[in-house]
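User: Show me a protein chain along with its predicted structure.
Assistant: Here is one chain, sequence first, then structure tokens.
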Amino acid sequence: MTLVGTIVTAIGTVFLFLGGLGVFRFPDVYNRLQAGTKCTTLGAFLTIIGVGIMEPTWFVKCLLIACFILLTNPISSHALGRAARKSGVPLWEGTVLDKTGEFEGYQKAGE
């Protein structure tokens, strides 16, 4: 089981690295939130589950922590994106489509 746990943990750390790279490379807050949320949620989930597989006595605790992250990380990211939009953080100039104006009266990109 140690080998399986190590592999799952390694895959999780790769996703965490890619999420960090996306946060570093993407052009605006909204794209960075996308990279940070998707990759770090999966990366943290896999890393914690991998630790639980390597240490079976911790598995239930690790599963609870991983489920907590799986539920709260996207919600907090949504709240950050919504707050950024409401406070007027501009979209990247290369943004092609902005559908938020149709729903909540936000200013469209480029206006």
